[in-house]
């Protein structure tokens, strides 16, 4: 995995590594050093720049873009490797940057907590921070040049500057709020629609400006930068990374002739160097393998890319296929990094002119606890397209006459695996918002009225993911497909969503054979056979063929549908089906039909119904009726043939 990710990162252009990244939320301040007539250097408290940033800002200024590049080349790998241990309040690791959250300043939540716990405050720890940061300089003269920046913090001059900035922000905020109130008053006192619209636009603009002068929240950053070239930031940060990108420096090698250092990988690694009782005691080697500092940095950059949402997720990384990896990078660039996995696969398949494979597939999530890899697996072959020939095509026929805006829906020809995912698996496992989440923590949100669907979702979401995204087609068989379809149908019946039932029955009859290795016969033909049986049953000549349980169950479904439609009660709906669906024995099932028939005996019934009902109520079987559920529901929701053909 590490080798493949490293090779992939080598192909990415440098500019890609910052696409989609954002500045830290909070206040960014760029400082300048000045020299007076006596050649004394100090921080200029009059010549400085600052700007606030919030995630909801629609645009990022050129100033903030520069700040983003600076803090990306000055940030700690993680707080366990910062310069401010054990408090971990200062998150920068550079002699040119100091970054901390507002909560550590006087009046902040952490400041108060430290007072109560008698811990050292942020103001007391700057000297220790700079002692470690200055070690990133190669020469002592560089260190002395930036002593003034250190004194800016140890002498608490930074507090004076923050007070000055806060006064400016207060003044700007008050002016904007006064203007905001005037405009709101104008809106109340005018009836002119054009004026109201213009005021609305001005108010929206003021809201944007107010975010730039807001009071800083405890959880937001205050970041001070020295106005130095980005190359100096990069050089210092490279030294920091070389020392700390490994999990531990205990097993680091000395630099070779090319400056390469080899050590233990820190990339998603729980190496237990500080826990001897968890280490191998009898092995002849100290560690299983090392990576170079160059590889460690590429892995660190890769980890930093994932939260930017610019890489397709899941991400295919091809093995020994530099051409395909290069094509993948080019596709991302051409789409302005908007392409997802589906678009990537489609394009590569067309480019490659054959099924792709021989790649690792990585799926990750950015959670409240940080980056989590949910799945990483090898895909030998990915089968993208389905057969285009009419003989082998996968088609969902509209056998149960689903209507879209009073128009009969056309049949759906499934072209590729993602089309199958959208038209089959999402309706079967998705929540009420039509969302199918494969890897988030299991929650019933969106499944409150879909108890049976949630059961299928809990059991089979990873199975469906592997089926779709890794072409592991053996994972879903007839029984799993049956369970997913009829769990969904049960919920649709309970919620009286008859269109959903018909859609799922269309899926069941149209593509069941695709998942049934033992019986590849097209089920739609069987439905036609059931309907022909009923036609024969209700005809004047009567039955000319032998009956069976499937014919009985289908006809019983039509009888039940006919009876339910006689109900004139306020709750007349397909929820009345549930008592029938609970039955296991034929005798109890027929008794439920007879009882409901008796309830509406004063109604008029067609001759067709009487013939079908006589057949159903006289039929005997020892079969478990739950196994005949597909046939019963098919009869309920098929075009009912029991109504009289004459019109009154």
Computed structural class: alpha+beta
Uncertain runs with pLDDT below 50, 5 residues or more? 270-287
| Secondary structure tally: strands | 13
Helix content: 40-55%
Give the integer mean of the pLDDT values.
88
Count of helical regions: 22
Strand order of the largest sheet: 2-1-4-3
How far apart are the first and last residues' alpha carbons, in Å? 74 Å
Q: So what's the overall shape?
A: elongated
Strand content: 5-15%
Largest sheet properties: 4 strands, mixed
Q: Radius of gyration in whole Å, from Cα?
A: 35 Å
Task: Note down, in words, how this protein is organized.
This protein has helices spanning about 1-10, 60-70, 110-115, 125-135, 140-145, 145-155, 155-190, 195-210, 230-245, 295-305, 320-335, 340-350, 415-430, 450-470, 480-495, 500-515, 525-535, 550-565, 580, 585-600, 605-620, 630-635, and strands spanning about 25-35, 40-55, 95-100, 220-225, 260-265, 290, 315-320, 355-365, 370-380, 395, 405, 405-410, 410-415. With about 650 residues, the chain is α+β, with helices and mostly antiparallel strands. The strands form 5 sheets. The chain has a 4-stranded mixed β-sheet with strand order 2-1-4-3. It has a 3-stranded antiparallel β-sheet with strand order 7-8-9. Strand 8 and strand 9 form a beta hairpin. The longest helix has about 35 residues, at about 155-190. It is elongated, with a radius of gyration of 35 Å. Mean pLDDT is about 90; it is low at about 270-285.
């Amino acid at each position: 995995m590490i080798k493949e990710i490293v090779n992939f990162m080598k192909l990415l252009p440098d500019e890609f590594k910052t696409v989609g990244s954002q500045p830290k939320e909070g206040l960014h301040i760029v400082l300048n050093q000045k020299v007076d007539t006596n050649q004394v250097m100090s921080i200029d408290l009059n010549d400085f720049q600052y700007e606030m940033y919030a995630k909801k800002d629609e645009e990022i200024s050129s100033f903030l873009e520069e700040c983003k590049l600076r803090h990306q080349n000055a940030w700690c790998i993680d707080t366990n490797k910062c310069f401010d241990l054990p408090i971990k309040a200062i998150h920068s690791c550079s002699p040119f940057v100091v970054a901390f959250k507002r909560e550590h300043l006087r009046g902040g939540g952490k400041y108060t907590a430290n007072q109560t716990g008698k811990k050292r405050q942020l103001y007391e720890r700057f000297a220790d921070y700079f002692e470690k940061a200055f070690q990133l300089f190669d020469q002592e003269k560089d260190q002395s040049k930036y002593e003034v920046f250190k004194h800016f913090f140890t002498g608490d001059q930074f507090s004076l500057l923050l007070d000055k900035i806060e006064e400016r922000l207060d003044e700007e905020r008050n002016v904007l709020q006064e203007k905001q109130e005037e405009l709101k008053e104008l809106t109340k006192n005018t009836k002119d629609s054009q004026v109201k619209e213009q005021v609305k636009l001005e108010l929206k603009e003021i809201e944007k400006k107010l975010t730039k002068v807001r009071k800083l929240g405890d959880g937001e950053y205050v970041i001070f930068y020295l106005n130095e070239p980005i190359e100096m930031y990069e050089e210092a940060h490279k030294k920091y990374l070389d020392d700390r990108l490994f999990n531990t420096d205990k097993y680091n090698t000395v630099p070779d002739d090319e400056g390469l250092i080899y050590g233990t990988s820190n990339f998603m690694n729980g190496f237990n160097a500080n826990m001897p009782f968890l280490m191998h005691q009898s092995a002849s080697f100290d560690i299983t393998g090392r990576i170079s500092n160059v590889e460690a940095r590429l892995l660190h950059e890769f980890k930093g890319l994932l939260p930017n949402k610019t890489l397709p997720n899941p991400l295919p990384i091809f093995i020994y296929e530099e051409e395909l990896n290069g094509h993948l990078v080019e596709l991302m660039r051409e789409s302005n990094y908007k392409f997802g996995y589906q678009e990537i696969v489609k394009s590569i398949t067309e480019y490659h002119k054959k099924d792709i494979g021989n790649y690792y597939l990585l799926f990750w999530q950015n959670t409240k606890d940080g980056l989590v890899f949910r799945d990483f697996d090898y895909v030998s072959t990915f089968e993208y397209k389905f057969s285009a020939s009419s003989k082998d095509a996968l088609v969902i026929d509209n056998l149960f006459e689903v209507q879209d805006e009073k128009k009969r829906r056309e049949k759906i020809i499934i072209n590729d695996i993602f089309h199958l995912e959208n038209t089959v698996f999402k309706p079967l496992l998705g929540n009420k918002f039509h969302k199918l989440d494969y890897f988030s923590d299991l929650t019933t949100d969106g499944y409150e009225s879909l108890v049976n669907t949630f059961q299928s979702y809990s059991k089979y979401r990873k199975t469906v993911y592997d089926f779709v995204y890794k072409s592991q087609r053996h994972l879903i068989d007839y029984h799993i497909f049956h369970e997913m379809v009829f769990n969904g149908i049960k919920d649709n019946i309970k919620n009286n969503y008859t269109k959903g039932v018909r859609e799922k029955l269309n899926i069941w009859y149209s593509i069941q054979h695709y998942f049934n290795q033992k019986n590849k016969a097209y089920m739609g033909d069987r439905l036609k056979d059931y309907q022909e049986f009923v036609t024969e049953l209700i005809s004047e000549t009567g039955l000319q063929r032998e009956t069976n349980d499937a014919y009985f169950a289908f006809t019983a479904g039509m009888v039940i549908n006919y009876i339910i439609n006689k109900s004139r009660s306020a709750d007349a709906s397909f929820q009345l089906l549930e008592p029938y669906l609970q039955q296991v024995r034929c005798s109890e099932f027929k008794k439920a039909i007879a009882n409901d028939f008796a309830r509406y005996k004063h109604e008029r019934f067609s001759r067709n119904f009487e013939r079908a009902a006589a057949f159903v109520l006289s039929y005997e079987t020892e079969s478990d009726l739950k196994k005949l559920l597909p046939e019963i529901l098919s009869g309920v929701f098929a075009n009912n043939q029991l109504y009289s053909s004459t019109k009154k």
